[in-house]
Task: structure prediction
Amino acid sequence: MANKTQSDATRRRKEPTARGFLRPGTGRIIVNDKPLEVYFERDTHRRWLIAPLQLTGDVENVDAFITVKGGGKSGQSGAIRMGFARALCGRDPNNREGLKAAGMLTRDARKVERKKYGQPGARKRFQFSKR
Result:
């Protein structure tokens, strides 16, 4: 199982869901049928999601095909990052130790808190009047 030709993983963060495939290749990353640089305009999002590939040294060795939906760009890049980390663990179990130490295998469980009935928002309350 260490030398699979294709690895896939599905991950979530907040609302986004990312589904990706890693194949041996030249370092091409396609997100929703667009190149990485076109889909994620911000450099911080791009650096954030390729961090697992850089940690394992697979940036130039694999091609990634990703489908992501829901949420915003930051959440989507976080979901893709975790998907990459999980797929890299599936390709080579020796990668797990380094990825776990870097915190890339831990799901960010934060979600938007629901609005409570009788209140204007999730945490906001109506102003209290003593008299």
